[in-house]
Design brief:
The chain is mainly α and about 180 residues long. Helix content is about 65%, strand content about 5%.
Length: about 180
């Protein structure tokens, strides 16, 4: 099953369970808060551990790919040359930023707007996203970096086809020609 579809199914299931939780009871609410904070500490701890493992391995294998063009930014895309270490660190950094943003949103929803159900749902979704994170699969779960885990990572689309960087030799050669042509001008 596609990861996006799994997220929807888990969210809907968690919403049904959350409806039955008596959030009016202060003791139950405190347990849900503790569960949410614990899940976020686990998530961030694992991401920091992945960063540590990446730095410890220090894989300096060169990684070349043509980044996908962003329709909102005409300057995006183009040839990217990096190392496996730097690529994994940047991907882990993106995951950490997403976790920080989620905590900030939950703080706003819970503290300011007084919503309680999202605490329960986001605790579950955060752990599911942690399990789906490709750097976690490689560096913590010990899966080989092949297939879906081959770098650069392709982003799965909910509609089937995965989008992402191009790694074929023809695309890389074409991007290198464009860079050479720009330098001559």
């Amino acid at each position: 099953m596609n990861s996006g579809v799994q997220n929807i199914v888990i969210s809907l299931g968690a919403m049904q369970v959350a409806r039955r939780i008596p959030f009016d009871d202060p003791e139950v609410l405190n347990y849900v808060r503790i569960g949410y904070v614990t899940s976020q500490v686990i998530i961030m701890g694992v991401y920091f551990f992945v960063s540590y493992k990446v730095r410890q391995k220090n894989d300096q294998t060169v990684l070349k790919y043509v980044d996908a063009q962003n329709p909102m930014s005409p300057d995006s895309g183009g040839l990217v040359t990096t190392t496996v270490r730097d690529y994994d660190l940047s991907e882990t950094s993106k995951l950490l930023r997403a976790a920080y943003f989620g905590v900030a949103m939950m703080a706003f929803f819970h503290l300011y707007m007084k919503y309680t159900q999202p605490l329960f749902i986001q605790a579950l979704m955060g752990l599911k996203n942690l399990y789906d994170a490709k750097p976690v699969a490689i560096h913590v779960l010990g899966k080989a970096a092949e297939g879906d885990l081959k770098r650069p990572f392709k982003t799965a689309s909910m509609f089937g086809a995965s989008a992402g960087p191009q790694t074929d030799a023809a695309s890389i050669a074409e991007a290198e020609k464009k860079i050479g042509a720009k330098k001559e001008d």
